[in-house]
Amino acid sequence: MVDPIRLQRDPAALDSLPRIARRGVIAPDEFAAIVAAGAPVVLHGLFDTWPALAAGMQGAATLNAYFRRLDSGAAVPVMEAPARHRGQFAYGPDLREFTFTRRQAPLGSTLDRIEGLIGQPDAPTVAIQMLRLDQAMPGFAEHNPMPLLPGIGARLWLGGAVHTRTHNDRDHNLACVIAGRRRFVLFPPEQVSNLYVGPPDNPPALSLVDPEAPDLARFPRYVDAVAAASLALVEPGEALFLPRYWWHHVISLDAYNAMVNYWWGGSDEPNHAFLTALLAFRDLPPGERDYWREMIAAYVFGERGDVLSHIPAPLQGPFGPLSPTARTALRQQLRAALGKPS
């Protein structure tokens, strides 16, 4: 296990974290099993025939030229951090602002700027992030298919040596590296209380801890997060499958990096339920909190064994298996209840 104290003075200590599993080319049913298992995996051989990968292997100028040929003319999302932040995409001092700015800009001029900054001393860090390729480069999917995820749109992440502070996603993520190397520091979902996550109403919600130089005096519980952490070093031609809710700190290791990712499978319903629970449960007296904690453990998560066998199936209501019709009726009931004045 990596020594958290060593991390405070040596970012390279991250390489001592346990490495996640690696797999070769897989069939769709094997991929479905990986997704169901809920653990990160590095995959190789999934997109060896992509023209984008071949261009990325030849360097920034070749890949940028490839993207320019596909450019539809749509504006692209650009993030930029001043040189003093050393590529850190994180919070500013007040947790309301960030170390980076966001804007829309033309693709071509942004690619030119990113390429021109390579090797420049004291240069800002510029990156294209979350670019929807179906809008910006409509021909990309045809020439660079991902058969494992038919119908799922791809997004592009391209830029300099970005260090994106620990965060998570509500969707599964397949991240395909086509230029540069990326290091992912991974934390299981249950480590949320040890990661010191920032304001949830100011997205993206990021960890305040810098995994490359953690302040353990300020963030002592981070020691437990490191004990559960793992590492994925993803090279061009490799992909990382990251299950939803896994926390990840992403380090782009080279001066020019490009990645295409796919998000799928998420739902807003759990988050809506969580926000409703904050409103309904958090300020209850202790005895009532205990009651609802047990109700949720028993009837939502099934942690108290079989608590329904004494009730005939037709009478189990929302506690039993929910048909599509029953789900729709329950949603309508909740909307009606939540829509009433308080």
Q: Strands, helices and their partners?
A:
Layout: H1 4-7, E1 21-23, H2 28-37, E2 41-44, H3 51-57, H4 60-70, E3 76-81, E4 88-89, E5 101-105, H5 107-117, E6 125-132, H6 133-136, H7 140-143, E7 154-159, E8 163-167, E9 172-179, E10 182-187, H8 222-227, E11 230-234, E12 238-242, E13 247-252, E14 257-264, H9 269-281, H10 286-300, H11 324-339
Helix pairs in contact: 3-4, 4-5
Describe the structure.
- The chain has 342 residues and is α+β, with helices and mostly antiparallel strands.
- Helix content is 30%, strand content 23%.
- The protein is built from eleven helices and 14 strands.
- The chain has helices at 4-7, 28-37, 51-57, 60-70, 107-117, 133-136, 140-143, 222-227, 269-281, 286-300, 324-339; strands spanning 21-23, 41-44, 76-81, 88-89, 101-105, 125-132, 154-159, 163-167, 172-179, 182-187, 230-234, 238-242, 247-252, 257-264.
- It has a nine-stranded mixed beta sheet. A five-stranded mixed beta sheet has the order 4-8-13-10-11, with no helix packed on it.
- Helix 3 (51-57) packs antiparallel against helix 4 (60-70) and helix 4 (60-70) runs antiparallel to helix 5.
- The chain is globular, with a radius of gyration of 23 Å.
